[in-house]
Amino acid sequence: MRFPHFLRAFTMVCSTLPGRAVSAALAVLCLASVVAAEIYTFDSAADPTPWQDTRIFRSSSNSNYGDQVLSSRADNNSLSHNLVQVDTSGILSTEVVTGASLKLTTDFQHPDTTSVTLTVHRLLQPWDEFEATWNERLNGTAWSTPGMQAGVDYSSTVITTQTLTANETHTFDLGSPAGLAMVQDWISNPTSNYGLALVATPSGGTTREQFNFVHSESTTADSGVKPILIITTVPEPTTLLMLAVGALGFVICGYRRKK
């Protein structure tokens, strides 16, 4: 059952009730939604197994940085982008995604750096953190163009934008329509999950603009500093309707006793 059908069914039930009971019914629906909501936290400090992350670096185009720091560099002398993927297949495929965010913490800012702007995109091609380089996504398999091509290797749609100006925890909100659709697809169709590309926007200058992120394999970072993905879901509409109608029954019974 899709949400429009769910809402239509709930509205039909409410149409048989007087005003006060309708208000109570709506309150029950809101309560059912809150109670049924699930928050899935993929904290790489607690369990790095679902994670893979790496950087690709133009100045060392054939080098792989598998278990080394993530780095975003945006000056004309070089560019560095980050790739992040989290296995979300443990979430029930019928769950409906209502929110998502990625938390990354910077722990190094080059002394000359003012800011680095990143755009977050959905990756469209498989890759491996111990094989990906500026030139290749897998050993012997090149990106469509060195450094990845928008629209082919990653979606040209920007999910969110973040400008880094200081060492701190940065929350990348994936709750835009494109972001929610992406995460929903990851859950409904796990084989479509190739993760995210954090693409550094070229600064246009030669001053070194660089931030490094704590990565999932870091052995020194404390919990809360290593990468975290948070996904919020509710049950698919049929289950939510059953919860709402079940609770609504109590409201109706209570109302009839008072008559």
End-to-end span in angstroms? Answer: 34 Å
Uncertain runs with pLDDT below 50, 5 residues or more? none
Shape: globular
Output the radius of gyration: 23 Å
Q: Helix and strand string, N-terminal first? A: HHEEEEEEEEEEHEEEH
How many H/I helical runs?
4
Query: Number of DSSP strands?
Result: 13
**What portion of the residues fall into strands of 2 or more residues?**
25-35%
Q: Classify the helix fraction into a percent range.
A: 10-25%
Instruction: Give the structural class.
Output: alpha+beta
Q: For the report, how would you describe the main beta sheet?
A: 6 strands, antiparallel
Average of the residue pLDDT scores:
86
Summarize the structure in words.
The protein is α+β, with helices and mostly antiparallel strands and 259 residues long. Strands 1, 3, 5, 10, 12 and 13 form a 6-stranded antiparallel β-sheet that branches. A hairpin with a 2-residue loop joins β7 and β8. Helix content is 25%, strand content 29%. The two termini are 34 Å apart. It is built from 4 helices and 13 strands. It is globular, with a radius of gyration of 23 Å. α1 packs parallel to α4 (237-258).
Question: Could you give a short description of this structure?
Answer:
The protein has 259 residues and is of the alpha+beta class. The chain contains four helices and 13 strands.
Give a quick set of tags describing it:
259 residues, alpha+beta, 6-stranded antiparallel β-sheet, 4 helices, 25% helix
